[in-house]
Amino acid sequence: MTKEKLNTTQRALRILKALKGRSLTGLTNKELCEAIGETPVNVTRAIAFLEAEGFVQRLDTGAYGLSYQILQIAVSHEAEMQKASERLAQVRARVQAGAF
């Protein structure tokens, strides 16, 4: 990873990406530092920001994982995509049946 100056939002987004698939096991501060190539101070600040906004939670192990709030966002997105898929299937069926 190239060294570039990141703002808190960029760091926070990179942390969320690093935590993908780690909701149950999480990552420690050190592991997050290694994953996104940032210093412990910057990762700690970004984690505090994400915790305050409800996107990350500290697990019993001390590691950080995605919170239920962000998982709810993912589930809502999936439901919306399912509705869109169903609607497209209806349109496709009408077009194929010559209903338009």
Automatic annotation (TrEMBL):
Pfam families assigned: HTH_IclR
GO molecular function (one): DNA-binding transcription factor activity
Organism, scientific name: Bibersteinia trehalosi Y31
Residue intervals of the HTH iclR-type domain: 9-59
Record-given protein name: IclR family transcriptional regulator
Source taxon at top rank: Bacteria
An annotated GO BP: negative regulation of DNA-templated transcription
